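Pipeline run #58 for the internal structure catalog. This entry was flagged by the ingest filter as a single-chain record with no existing model, so it goes straight to prediction. Upstream metadata was stripped on purpose; only the residue string is passed forward. Reviewer on rotation: M.T. Logging verbosity set to normal.
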Amino acid sequence: MSALDSPLILVEGLRRTGKTSLVKSVLNARDNPYIYLDMRRFENREYVVYKDF
């Protein structure tokens, strides 16, 4: 199974309304492994490359 076969869920809303807290709490409650990346550091860049991590 590839990532493209999985459903995609988009969480959007106004700033500071708990979107990140909601996503993190759901991920912590599940038994699946996950990686959480906070991309705010790169918000002013046109693109991000592997070297940036």
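catalog note: The radius of gyration is 14 Å.
catalog note: Residues 39 and 45 are 10 Å apart (CA to CA).
status: ready for reviewer M.T.
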